[in-house]
Write a structure and sequence with these properties.
Largest sheet: 3 strands, antiparallel
Distance between the termini: 58 Å
Mean pLDDT: 86
Radius of gyration: 24 Å
Length: 405
């Protein structure tokens, strides 16, 4: 494959990623336009709604102004004034990253992969800019800069990861070899520092992954247990079959947000659905909620056994510390062991705090401007819980390993 063909192939890969991302909300909206509105409404309204949803999913904030007649009919306080919408359905950003990783693997297999990667990033950026420009409206105006840059950065990150893994696979290396090679290129530190930093990065990432896995199971259980309440909210919305399908797609895009919120709940601080509300292991205090069916899965009232959720990050940090020491049984001095576990907690706090920040935002006017976890509090709690537990795990596994010798 020569350079022009590589460039065309890479541009089509970028086009496919953008097309799938925007197409997921656009297809059901177009069906609604055809069957429910009988083509009487300008289709560009649905195009702008699909693009706005896609841009929000990549972190682009949007200034929204609700029509005066509609605001008066809904009766929500503050709805008549312009407000910023920044609550991102993270499913779209995650999809772009995964599709970008796939595109990176495919482009890396071409002879002129560097040219292809550059063309893919450029094409994606141009398509994202075009999408933003075509979605601008006086009632809903997304940020042109954020919409273009944030989405392109997410795609580029997936593209780079996929290409790097593919190039090492073609060279006969394993993914772990790719990570080790990248780590060796980035660091030229003393052996002790490399051991502490490397162990801390692994401990922090593994702890967050374990907490997120438990959080995902918790979300699934809550949805299953509260299925009746969710169906009741679907029926109360009177959206019909087509409207219900659109609503379901929108809620699926928020599944990553729900998992992060559940992780914040397990850590302790929980999250808010509106100013003055709180959903935490100690209890739930909610005000008026939007008529979103999945919110019917939220726990209500005081939870007698809610404090058990706080054991999840502690157990995760302890087990990660034990496994980290078993994987590298070398005996480290006590200060380095404590430093590894403590820094692992800091890494975990930074990662989950960043996810908490990205998962929340403004979901509407008034009290709905505060939705999601407090990223700073979540990060500090994770750093403390995982850090202390990881240090204990390292020490216990080290002491046991020393006693068996």
């Amino acid at each position: 494959m020569n350079r022009p063909l590589t460039a065309v192939f890479s541009a089509l890969e970028a086009l496919l990623v953008v097309g799938i991302g925007i197409g997921i909300p656009l297809v059901p909206l177009t069906i609604v336009w055809g069957f429910q509105y009988e083509l009487q409404v300008d289709w560009l309204v649905f195009w702008r709604a699909a693009v706005d949803t896609w841009l929000l999913g990549h972190g682009a904030a949007m200034r929204v102004t609700v029509d005066e007649a509609l605001a008066a009919g809904l009766g929500l306080p503050g709805l008549g004034e312009p407000f910023v919408l920044s609550l991102a359905p993270l499913g779209f950003g995650l999809l772009t990253f995964l599709l970008g990783q796939r595109a990176g693997r495919r482009i890396a297999e071409t002879p002129h992969h560097l040219v292809g990667l550059g063309v893919a990033v450029t094409t994606f950026g141009l398509l994202a800019f075009t999408a933003v420009v075509t979605s601008l409206h006086e009632l809903a105006r997304p940020s042109i800069v954020q919409g273009t840059i944030f989405s392109t950065l997410i795609f580029s990150a997936g593209l780079a990861l996929g290409a790097g893994l593919a190039r090492h696979r073609l060279a006969g290396s394993r993914p772990r070899d790719f990570v080790d090679a990248a780590w060796d290129r980035m660091t030229d530190w003393p052996a002790g520092v490399r051991t502490v930093v490397g162990g801390a990065l692994r401990a922090g990432a593994a702890s967050v992954a374990a907490i997120a896995a438990v959080a995902a199971v918790l979300v699934a259980v809550l949805v299953a247990v509260n299925y009746g309440g969710i169906i009741a909210l679907y029926e109360a919305s009177q959206a019909g079959a087509l409207g219900g399908a659109v609503l379901t797609v929108a809620q699926l895009a928020f599944v990553p947000n729900l998992v992060v919120w559940a992780a914040a709940w397990l850590v302790g601080p929980g999250f808010a659905i509106g100013a003055g509300s709180a959903v935490s292991p100690l209890g739930t205090t909610l005000g008026p909620l939007p008529s979103v069916p999945v919110l019917g899965a939220l726990p209500t009232g005081d939870l007698a056994w809610g404090f058990l959720g706080l054991l999840v990050p502690v157990v995760a940090g302890f087990l990660v510390g034990v496994l980290l020491r078993l994987r590298d049984p070398r005996m480290l001095p006590l200060p380095l062991t404590v430093a590894t576990g403590s820094l692992g907690g800091v890494v975990a706090g930074l990662l989950l705090g960043l996810l908490a920040w990205w998962s929340g935002g403004s979901g509407g006017p008034g009290r709905l401007e505060v939705i999601g976890p407090d990223a700073l509090v979540v990060g500090l709690c994770v750093a403390l819980e995982v850090g202390v537990a990881c240090v204990l795990g390292l020490l216990v596994a080290g002491r046991r390993g020393a006693g068996s010798e």
